[in-house]
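Reopening this ticket.

The earlier resolution said the output was attached, but the attachment link was broken on my side. Pasting everything inline this time so it's all in one place.
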Amino acid sequence: MDKVTVEICCGTACYLLGAARLMELEANLPEELKGKVEFEAKACLGMCNDDRLGG
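Inline output:
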């Protein structure tokens, strides 16, 4: 399995709505996933403004 990178929007609204808690998931990964999944905080990804996503 190649390394998977999970990008988490940490713009102000997303951060307050739970992105900060999502960033903590990396520390709680099962041993078999450690080193295979990484989490990256990103500036606003703008997904909340995309009508196709229900934003």
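Reporter confirms the inline version is readable. Strands lie at 4-9, 37-42. The first helix runs from residue 12 to 23.
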